Amino acid sequence: MIQLNDEILNQYIDGELNQAALIEVKELLKKSDDGRRRLAALQRVHGELGKIKIYETGADFTSLLMAKIRKNAISIKKDRYFVFSISTIFMIISLAIIGYVFTIAVGSSSSGSMSTNSIDYYINYFTNALETVRNILSAKNISIIGSIFSFGIIITGYIFFENLRHAKRRLSRLQ
Amino acid sequence: MKNLTDLEIIESVKKGNHSDFALLVDRYRNKAFSMLKRMLKNEMEAEEVLQDCFLKAFKSLQNFRLEAKFSTWFYRIVYNTALTKISGKKRKIESEMSSIDDHLNLRSNYDYQVTEREDFSKFIHMLIEKLPAKYSSVINLFYLENMTCEEISEVMETSVTNIKVMLYRSRNALRDELMKTNYEKELL
After folding, report:
1. Is the minimum CB–CB distance between B178 and chain A shorter than 8 Å?
2. What is the pLDDT of residues B31-47, one digit of tens each?
3. What is B1-91's CATH number, 1.10.1740.10, 3.60.15.10, 3.40.50.740, 2.60.40.10?
4. Which of residues 122-161 of B touch A (CB under 8 A)?
5. Cα distance from A77 to chain B (closest Cα, Å)?
6. What's the gap in Å between the CA of A87 and the closest CA on chain B?
7. Over pLDDT 70: what percentage of chain B?
């Protein structure tokens, strides 16, 4: 037995009742003034909700948003370029240090006692390389390496702030 | 170009035609803005949040599965971003977000005497603006976007039953206000 409650009336409006239920609800509505009044009010509300207002954004919303998207894409590209540049600088510095160590190690190996045994040669070579690295990292040279890295960091900072300045200028031009 | 489906536009954007995203923006901006304005009750904030939503959607577009429906996916971003904004502002969100047993007190601050049919229409639309965030989201998605309760449940990540309860309660609350007015004489 169906009762004319709010849920049934809402389902009636949404067309969710099956055929048997629909017939039963229609019969009940015929007998109930209150039911008809509540249904009519609900249908009026449903009708008004169907005419719910669509608010509009500012006319330039899309163009401003697309400008922001383009700016973001540029800044992502710049960030990638920045990371690539810095990685390259550090790579070059590292290669220079390795090259320097290698040169000194080879020089020491060839100037030392001539060994005919290749294993001895490589052991000698790596010992010299380690010795060179130890010399480079000695208290005397560590300040030079520190200076090189500090210089790298200063350059990195400069490029970073220069990027920021450019981004701000572009943003102010867009606004 | 304007006849392209959402998925065709997304495919084009994914291929690198970023400017095609403007088509999606134009397609959804006003309806999403209406939903946000009713949720946040503030026009400036609604536009700000909408811009964030489109930026989020653009950034996440590469992760969008083409078998899904863009509108459902996008409105989930809109809905969640709005809720985050509301919770950030420390509004009384518990009463709006946590339970479907919310009390819809739509007529708390004023007394409105409805005499004309047109007045009633204005009155109802004024009450719609007063609906709590969750209820207004359901109403917007159901009536503006013509979404089914199943689709709305995907957007709001809740059960279909909860969505129906919220939809029915919103209508009933508005209906109850209508029944209190002189308009009920016109109904029969």
Report:
1. yes
2. 999 999 999 989 999 99
3. 1.10.1740.10
4. 124-125, 128, 139-140, 142-144
5. 14
6. 26
7. 79
Tokens of B167: 């939809």
Record: contact A42-B175, CB cut-off 8 A? yes
Instruction: Give the residue from A33, A57, A70 with the most B CB atoms within 10 Å of its CB, the best one to mutate.
Output: A57
Q: What is the CATH number of domain B94-188?
A: 1.10.10.10
- Chain A residues whose beta carbon lies within 8 Å of the beta carbon of residue B50: 57, 61
Q: Report pLDDT digits (tens) over A37-82.
A: 999 989 989 998 998 889 999 889 999 999 988 887 777 777 777 7
Give residues with Cβ within 8 angstroms of B53, minimum separation 6: B32, B36, B74, B77, B78, B81
Which residue do the tokens 């035609």 mark? Answer: B17
Q: What is the ipTM of this complex?
A: 0.81
Which of these, B173, B39, B14, lies nearest to B108 by C-alpha position? B173
Q: How far is CA B167 from CA A139, B128, B140, B143, in A?
A: 76, 12, 10, 10
Low-confidence residues in chain B, pLDDT < 70:
1-2, 90-119, 181-188
Contacts of A64 in chain B (CB under 8 A): 51
